[in-house]
Design brief:
CATH topology: TerB-like
CATH architecture: Orthogonal Bundle
Distance between the termini: 56 Å
Radius of gyration: 17 Å
CATH superfamily: TerB-like
Shape: globular
CATH class: Mainly Alpha
Structural class: mainly alpha
Helix content: over 70%
Number of strands: 0
Largest sheet: none
Number of helices: 11
């Protein structure tokens, strides 16, 4: 089975990739193909949003059932997808992250920078923390990934800290410091 078949892509997608560079990214092409009712701009947003959420979910090299459920809920709530569409996109991104050894996150960040305003970028960072807290705490690896995304989205340190502050009680580093202090 070819990679194109695994992702649910057709040969028509290869032709489209030549006309629109965004479709050259396998995740954008897969979302655009699977959710045929979405415009290319919406497919780019959904692919970048879902892919970057997956970056944090996969920070520990696995995506837990709780992270998968949170991913689907965020896709439905924040990206405006139906539950079936959210499930399909979740399956695409988790497959690419786990079975295909990764996603080109730098390209997805560029796509997100092109199409999202500051408010959407801040909303994404908030959603990244929601994914990270799906299993109750934010690991150092997840926090580092979120910080890297915030930097790549050109958010200021103040913007990042304001969002991160809302999740301070779930940060592993804070919990570890409290345990050390209580001894």
């Amino acid at each position: 089975m070819s990679l194109r078949q695994i992702l649910g892509l057709t040969h028509a997608d290869a032709a489209l990739a030549h006309t629109d560079p965004a479709l050259a990214h396998p995740l954008v092409a897969a979302v655009h193909e699977r959710l045929a009712g979405l415009s290319l701009e919406r497919a780019k947003f959904v692919a970048a949003f879902a892919g970057l959420l997956t970056r944090v979910a996969f920070a520990d090299l696995e995506i837990s059932p709780a992270e998968r459920a949170t991913l689907q809920a965020l896709l439905a709530d924040k990206a405006g997808l139906t539950p079936d569409e959210a499930s399909a996109v979740s399956a695409i991104v988790t497959h690419q992250a786990t079975a295909l050894a990764g996603i080109d996150y730098a390209a997805l960040t560029r796509v997100f920078n092109e199409i999202a305003d500051a408010q959407k970028k801040e909303q994404l960072i908030d959603c990244l923390y929601a994914i990270a807290t799906a299993q109750s705490t934010v690991s150092i690896a997840e926090d580092d990934q979120i910080r890297a995304v915030a930097n790549a989205l050109f958010l200021s340190h103040e913007q990042f800290i304001a969002i991160r502050h809302r999740y301070k009680e779930q940060l592993d580093i804070i919990q570890a410091m409290r345990q050390d202090y209580s001894r």
